[in-house]
């Protein structure tokens, strides 16, 4: 870490945190926001994030201002937007900016146009090469390779402030929703399981159709009440087809943030591919079983009431499937439509169902991340 810890909490009066990313990224960084509020109870704290994630952190007890970041997609218009954004930040006269996952080009704009005297960033290998050139304080990820993202975001704060405190992730109060299916979920008999297993961006966390089908047959045959969180109509149709083929009943719930949170609170377990809902469940204290696949080890569910299952510790590490996985991040190719990574194919549905029952019986798990050894590699 370059730079020195500042002398007292009174050094910062106006604080900006930049956390661009999706639901899981935002929730994992929320503990750092709580930590900042604890260290600087009278400071003005602003967060720059995406419109999607705004509701997750828009808590007036912790954050004074949420700035929505919704840049256009064109290269030139994007550059102009970011420059104007930096100039607007200049007018707010921040004392410090914590860049929690930022590009080099945006850090350069902040240095040039925003006039923020202290700029703290994380240096995370190749992806953020050169970022340190535009910041006054740098926390190096390489120094803590096995540390969870939640802890690392707080390391960024602690390294500059000298604090030894820590804070758990949080979720702001979301609007109440009255979807009838949510009332049915709350009243459902027996053990209730939420499912979020229908693919992800670029299909990097897709579980094979046949594995999902086998798992649904097993869980439905044991009498569990099943509820599927879906983000759009096509996912809902896929779940309906799976339920029909598996001959089980699954209530489909549209997965807005508010509806997801309310459903999760009524569940005994979330079974999910790596997704934002995994981190929502962890923040809400809901037991969770995450099918991690190529997810890096530092982003397993941050909770004592759950577990991530994988057959490799992620694409940043030595992967036994490297030669058979054209989408491995070390290779860099984009996956084709319908692609399912071999590390996800290697997750046996029978073992997944075994862990579902294990967590339902005892949500407190002795380990947060378990790597299965496929038989052919044992």
Mean pLDDT: 86
Count of helix runs: 12
Estimated share of beta-strand residues: 15-25%
Low-confidence stretches: 1-7
**Total number of strands:** 13
What gross morphology would you assign?
Answer: globular
Cα-atom radius of gyration: 21 Å
Strand order of the main beta sheet, please?
Answer: 9-8-7-10-11-12-13
The arrangement of helices and strands along the chain is EHEHEHEHEEHHEHEHEHEHEEHHE
Structural commentary:
The protein is 35% helix and 16% strand. It is built from 12 helices and 13 strands. It has helices spanning 23-39, 54-57, 75-91, 104-114, 149-161, 180-187, 209-221, 233-246, 257-265, 276-284, 342-345, 349-361; strands at residues 14-18, 44-49, 65-68, 96-99, 118-123, 137-140, 192-196, 225-230, 250-254, 269-273, 288-291, 306-310, 369-371. The radius of gyration is 21 Å and the shape is globular.
Write the layout of secondary structure elements.
Blueprint lengths: L13 E5 L4 H17 L4 E6 L4 H4 L7 E4 L6 H17 L4 E4 L4 H11 L3 E6 L13 E4 L8 H13 L18 H8 L4 E5 L12 H13 L3 E6 L2 H14 L3 E5 L2 H9 L3 E5 L2 H9 L3 E4 L14 E5 L31 H4 L3 H13 L7 E3 L7
Parallel strand pairs: 1-2, 1-4, 2-3, 4-5, 5-6, 7-8, 7-10, 8-9, 10-11, 11-12, 12-13
């Amino acid at each position: 870490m370059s730079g020195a810890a500042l002398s007292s909490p009174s050094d910062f009066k106006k604080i900006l945190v930049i956390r661009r990313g999706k639901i899981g990224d935002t929730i994992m960084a929320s503990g750092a926001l709580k930590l900042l509020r604890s260290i600087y109870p009278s400071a003005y704290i602003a967060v720059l994030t995406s419109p999607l994630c705004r509701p997750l952190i828009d808590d007036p007890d912790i954050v004074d201002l949420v700035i929505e970041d919704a840049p256009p997609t064109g290269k030139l218009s994007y550059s102009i937007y970011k420059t104007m954004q930096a100039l607007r930040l200049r007018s707010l006269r921040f004392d410090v900016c914590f860049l929690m996952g930022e590009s080099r080009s945006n850090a350069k704009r902040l240095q040039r146009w925003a006039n923020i005297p202290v700029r703290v960033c994380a240096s995370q290998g190749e992806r953020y090469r050169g970022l340190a050139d535009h910041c006054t304080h740098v926390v190096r990820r390489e120094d803590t390779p096995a540390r969870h993202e939640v802890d690392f975001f707080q390391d960024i704060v602690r390294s500059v402030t000298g604090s030894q405190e820590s804070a758990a992730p949080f979720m702001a109060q979301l609007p109440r929703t009255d979807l009838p299916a949510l009332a049915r979920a709350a009243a459902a008999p027996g053990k209730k399981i939420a499912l979020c297993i229908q693919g992800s961006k670029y299909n990097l966390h897709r579980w094979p159709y046949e594995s999902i089908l086998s798992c649904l047959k097993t869980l439905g045959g044991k009498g569990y009440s099943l509820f599927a969180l879906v983000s759009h109509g096509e996912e809902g149709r896929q779940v309906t087809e799976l339920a029909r083929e598996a001959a089980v009943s699954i209530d489909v719930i549209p997965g807005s943030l508010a509806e997801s949170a309310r459903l999760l609170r009524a569940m005994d377990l979330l079974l999910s591919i790596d997704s934002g809902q995994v981190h929502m469940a962890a923040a809400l204290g809901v037991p969770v079983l995450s099918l991690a696949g190529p997810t890096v080890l530092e982003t397993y569910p941050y909770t004592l009431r759950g577990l991530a299952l994988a057959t490799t510790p992620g694409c940043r590490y030595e992967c036994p499937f490297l030669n058979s996985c054209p989408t491995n991040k070390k290779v860099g190719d984009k996956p084709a439509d319908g692609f399912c990574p071999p590390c996800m194919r290697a997750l046996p549905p029978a073992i997944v169902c075994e862990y579902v029952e294990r967590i339902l019986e005892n949500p407190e798990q002795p380990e947060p991340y378990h790597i299965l050894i496929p038989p052919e590699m044992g």
